[in-house]
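Same chain as my last thread, 113 residues:
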Amino acid sequence: RTRDLGLALTADGRIAVTDTLQVRGSSDVYAIGDMALCEPLADTDASAQNAQVAVQQADYAAYNVWASLGGKAEMPFRYTKLGEMLAYGTLDASVDAMGLLNIRGLPGATLRR
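reply #2:
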């Protein structure tokens, strides 16, 4: 459980991280994924607990660890919503690609597979 880690937590029990994904109050600890909340982006899509956010956070966290070890400037996390896929059963789904393309029903289910 996150409360047992002794790290700064948000009101909902997630690990509180800065825009560079460092744990608040810890200059050498980073946290990403479902258990972390980037407080500066708390009211945006970047606070969603899903794989799309976590994968993007991983790239930033890896860079920021490298940057901190080399004395370089760290990059603040910026989330880019790429779209989503939702299944409503085996023959029905919705696929949204960056808000530019939305396919529903059987074609969406086929594309999702």
